[in-house]
Amino acid sequence: MAWWEDTIREIAEYRIYSSTDAVLRALELFPQVFKRAYNLRESLETLAELVNKLVEVRPTSVMLNNMMRRLLRAVEKHIKAGRSASEIADALELEIKSLRRELESAVNIAATLGARRVRNGDTLMTCSYSKTIMALFHRLREEGKRVRVYVTESRPGSEGVEMAREISSMGFEVELIVDSAVRFFMKDVDLVVVGAEAIAANGAVVNKVGTSMIALAAHEARVRTFVIATTHKFSHETIFGELVRLPIIRGVKLLPGLEREADLSAESPLFDVTPPEYIDAIITERGVVAPEAVILLVRELYGWPPETMDVISAAHRLLEVVESGAAS
Questions:
Q1: Burial class of residue 287, CB neighbours in 10 A (0-12, 13-18, 19+)
Q2: So what's the pLDDT on residue 217?
Q3: E strand or H helix at 44
């Protein structure tokens, strides 16, 4: 068993609730690849295997892909500069510290901008578990705004239970509700706030399954829906028609109390797609944008046409960089 299997399993089984935290845990594996190997070639072979595994277990995480691209570019730069495996490991640790600070700053700015859209006394609805949404409630508490919150259980996984517990611990009034009761309670809601796993170039949002149902019910009830997420989750590949693959989990363990019913089967997607017409605004560290304007922000961030990089192919090409350097 590879030394990184435990971390991969935690990410694959969504035991790390926040997608941002899952990405940071994944990135911490990269310096270890170069510290544990006997030489640079072995490091790069392991790195290619690791990248392939991360893409396999978290196919929806645009942030993970975007961050891995940055680290792979850094690795290539250091290889061409003649750095050793241990020197690359040290450089990656510094790079990851910088990325962590960048992400924390972006999350806090987005949360601050989101808090401006929340009025004292509002009733909010949210779902799943989001680091950015948690930062929003921390900001609301700092501003002294009192709000009531409906949080869906967010099955499968029930991450909403942990979300509700943490928001309640901040002193807010929280009601935990079953996913199917969203439409029933929407009449009492002033604002929906959700995070995101990925944001497509057309403004569609990938998030925990059930998000689209909440947004649809809010749209019907004329309740505004705000997505709060950093631009690290913007997918520029979707400009070219690339699709975000949504994983499905299967097994009767999805149904509590029916684990022994061998003749039954159950399945559930982990994520769904909320169309842009059900989203009022996407709040990022770069400001508040309409879903239709996401493509303009993508152009600003990545240029036009945006440069794409398949991380799996890029990781394998690093071996060619080493070989060409040795040949020269």
A1: middle
A2: 98
A3: helix 40-57
264 or 48: which leads in pLDDT: 48
What would the pLDDT profile of 75-98 be if each residue is shown by its tens digit? 999 999 999 999 999 999 999 999
CA distance 56 to 51: 9
CA distance 46 to 35: 11
Residue 209's identity, in one-letter code, is V
Domains of the chain plus CATH, in order, are 5-107+310-327 (1.20.120.420), 117-302 (3.40.50.10470)
CB-based contacts of 85: which residues, under 8 Å, 6+ apart?
A: 34, 35, 37, 39, 40, 43
In this structure, what token pair is assigned to residue 80?
């061409």
- Quote the pLDDT of residue 269: 86
Confidence band, pLDDT 50/70/90 cuts, at residue 322? confident
DSSP track, 254-274: GSTT-TT-TT---EEESEEEE
The DSSP-derived string for 190-231 is: SEEEE--SEE-TTS-EEEETTHHHHHHHHHHTT-EEEEE--G
Sequence-ordered list of residues with C-beta below 8 angstroms from that of 64, at least 6 positions apart, any chain: 22, 23, 26, 54, 55, 58
- Of 184, 185, 187, 177, nearest to 223 by C-alpha is 187
Cα 121 to Cα 117, 118, 148, 237, 271: the distances in Å are 12, 9, 7, 40, 31
Query: Two tokens at 167?
Result: 């928001």
Instruction: Work out the angle between the directed axes of helices 62-80 and 311-327 (0-180°, nearest 10).
Output: 0
- pLDDT of residue 209 exceeding 70: yes
Q: Which residue has the higher pLDDT, 261 or 182?
A: 182
What pTM was computed for the model?
A: 0.91
Phi, psi of 121, rounded to the nearest 5 degrees: 95, -5
Each residue's pLDDT tens digit, 32-58:
999 998 899 999 999 999 999 999 999
